[in-house]
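User: Working on a comparison across species. This one is CRADD protein from Nothocercus julius. Can you predict its structure so I can line it up against the others?
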Amino acid sequence: AASDERGTLLDVQLALSEEQFQAFKLLLEERIPRSRLQPAGRPELCSLLLQHCPGQALLQSATILRRIGRLDLIERFQLPGARDGIGQHPGGPEMTKGSSGSGSGEDASGGEDAGWALPAATVSPCLSPACERRLTERELMQVAQLLGKEWQEVAICNLGLEKRRLEQIREDNPGNVVVQVFEGLREWHRRERQRATASNLHTCLATASVDPEVLVLLRSIGSN
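Assistant: Here's the predicted structure for CRADD protein from Nothocercus julius:
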């Protein structure tokens, strides 16, 4: 049974794109020390899951797959919750993967992996800050995917992050811009606490040179 569990865990990891794999590891920091996660490849990550989540490695994997929008893998590998009407994770539109889920990073047509595709967002006429909930980590990941390479200027000028902290984030996550942006947004999220809402982030980014889709997404989240 243990070998079957390890095999399923590895199959799941191999079905993720590189960016999704890095996001998966990032979200595991709640359960596994970062110092052990960062150097881990896919087989090593399976061992860490079995070690730190005894008897719950598949459940933990399913939880994270929901958070990064890979519900298809929960169904394909019959992970916990596959037949329980998993639906959308609460807190906003799903991130969907435009691929067949193969570990090669190619989509169903054989082209290069295009990453996560965001569903079309509907612009709300206004954002009401009253009683607005905080952004979830999954929503921060959606924003991170859209911010792009200009994120450092935005983080300093619009989110008030320190340059030294941004340099540390870059060193901790070399070569992965999406995860770097996500960590920067998490820093803002922790600092703002209850004010870390879609409307507040929208206000912060409204004057920044960002993809308009970022603001559309935040308005959509704030209207839900």
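For your comparison, note: Confidence is low (pLDDT under 50) at residues 85-130.

User: Helpful, thanks.
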